[in-house]
Amino acid sequence: MTALLNERKRYATNGQGFLLIINYTYDREGCEYDKKKLINFFGRLNYRIAFFQNLQKRQLLDGLRALPDILDRGEYYCFVCVIMGHGNKKGIMTADTNELKIIGIKKILDIFDNRRLKTFAGKYMHLNELQYKLDDAGKKENSNANASTCTKDATNTSESNEMEILPPSGSDMVTFYSTVKGFVSKRYPDGGTVFIQNVLRTFEQHHCLLDVETMMKMASRRIQRTHRQVPLFCTTLSRKFHFIYCPRW
C-alpha cells in the first residue's frame, strides 16, 4: 500500500523524454559550455534532443508551432525546453535586425499549453536562461472542460453524456528563470552561465534520488550563496517529477 501511494504522488515516466535547446550565440561567449553540459546530461538519459540556433522570430515561431504534433504523436513522458540568449522584460531577442525581434516567453509557453497538448498534460518542464518579467494572468476564467458533451441532467451518467475533464490550462508546468526581474544573469567566457552550469551540476548529482522541484531549490540556494544571483522558480506541478533513463529507445 505504501508503494502504491508513493507512485500516485509521482508523474508517470513511461516513454522517452524530449529536450529542445533554443540557443542564441551572438555576444554570448561561453554558451557552448552550456550546450555541451545539457547534451551530456540529457543524452545519458536517452532523451531525444532537438536544436534551434540563431533563428529569426518567424523561423522560431514556425519551428515551435510544428512541435506539438510531433510531441503528441510520440511516446514521450516529458518535454524540456531550454532557452539561452539575451533578453529583456519583453522577452527573448531573436536573430532579427529590427525592433520586431523580441518574442515573449508567454507566447512560447502558450504553444505548449495542455489545451493544445491534451495527451501530453502533466509532462512539461521549461528552463529559461533569460531575465524575464512574469506577465499578469489576467481575469480570464481557467476552464478546460469540453462543454460540447454537457447536458442539463446532472444525474445522467451515460457515457455519451459525460463531460470531458482536462487539466486546467497552465497546469503541470515548471519554469525556472536565471534571475529575478531587474538583475543580470552571469556568464563566464571560459565556463558558461552560472545558472545552467549549477542547475545541471545539481541534476547530475541528485537526479537518481530527488525530484525536480527539490533539485531546483537546491540549485537556487547554491547560486544565491556562491554567486549572489537569485533565480526565479515557478511551478504548477501537483505531484513529484523525476528524470528517468529510458533504455527502450
Automatic annotation (TrEMBL):
This protein's record includes keyword Hydrolase: yes
Sorted UniProt keywords: Apoptosis, Hydrolase, Protease
Keyword Protease among record annotations: yes
Regions of compositional bias (Polar residues) in chain numbering: 143-160
MF term (GO), any: cysteine-type endopeptidase activity
Region named Disordered: 141-164
Caspase family p10 domain mapped to chain residues: 168-245
InterPro entries: Caspase-like_dom_sf, Pept_C14, Pept_C14_caspase, Pept_C14_p10, Pept_C14_p20, Pept_C14A
Annotated Gene3D superfamilies: 3.40.50.1460
Pfam family, one: Peptidase_C14
SMART domains to which the protein is assigned, alphabetical: CASc
Domain of life, source organism: Eukaryota
Domain Caspase family p20: 28-123
GO biological process: apoptotic process; proteolysis
PANTHER family: CASPASE RECRUITMENT DOMAIN-CONTAINING PROTEIN 18, CASPASE-3
UniProt similarity note: Belongs to the peptidase C14A family.
Protein name: Caspase family p20 domain-containing protein
Species this protein is from: Dreissena polymorpha (Zebra mussel)
Organism ancestry: Eukaryota, Metazoa, Spiralia, Lophotrochozoa, Mollusca
